[in-house]
Amino acid sequence: MFCKGKNVFFNNGCSFQDRDGIQIGDNCIIGMNVTIATLNHGLTLETRNTTYASPVTIGENVWIGSSATILPGVTLGNNSVIAAGAVVTKDVPANIVVAGVLTKVVKVIHSN
Predict the structure, then answer these.
(1) Which residues partner with 100 through β-bridges?
(2) Whose CA, among 10, 13, 37, 96, lies 20 to 30 Å from 2?
(3) Who's near 69: CB < 8 A, 6+ residues apart?
(4) Does the annotation mark 110 as catalytic?
(5) Mind listing the pLDDT tens digit for each residue in 49-104?
(6) pTM (predicted TM-score)
(7) Which residues is 93 bridged to in the sheet?
(8) Catalytic pick from 3, 41, 47, 50?
(9) Domains of the chain with bracketed CATH
C-alpha cells in the first residue's frame, strides 16, 4: 500500500516498486528519477528466485535528491536529506544528511 502525507512533491521519472508498503510523511521532496523498492530476493543460487518484501518508511520533511535509490526495509528519519545518486541500504536517523553509493553520515542537522 502506498501512503503519502500532505504537501509531498514528486519530480519526474520516479519509480516505486511497492509490494509491502511505502509510507511517506508530510512535507517531503522526492527528486527526479528516485527509485523506492520494497522487494528483494535471495543471493544464493537456491534462493535467487525467491522474493521477499520489506516496507519503506519516509519520515516528515525528508528531501531525497535526484536519482537516489531507497532499498527495501529502510526507514528515513524526520528532516533527513538523501544526496543525489545515493543508494540507501540502511536506516537513516532523523536530522542526518547521507551521501554516496554506500551511504555514510556526512552531516548532522541541528535546529536553530
Answers:
(1) none
(2) 96
(3) 34, 35, 36, 37, 86, 87, 88
(4) no
(5) 889 999 999 999 999 999 999 999 999 999 999 999 999 999 999 999 999 987 77
(6) 0.89
(7) none
(8) 41
(9) 2-96 (2.160.10.10)
Residue indicated by cell numbers 520489506: 54
Tell me the DSSP string of 14-69: -EEE-SS-EEE-SS-EE-TT-EEE-EEE-SSTTTTT-EEE--EEE-TT-EE-TT-E
Beta bridge partners of 56: 22
Half-sphere exposure of residue 30: CA atoms within 13 angstroms, side-chain side = 26
Residue 80 to residue 99: CA distance in whole angstroms? 11
Lookup: cell for 108: 548532522
Burial class from Cβ neighbours inside 10 Å (0-12, 13-18, 19+) for residue 48 reads exposed
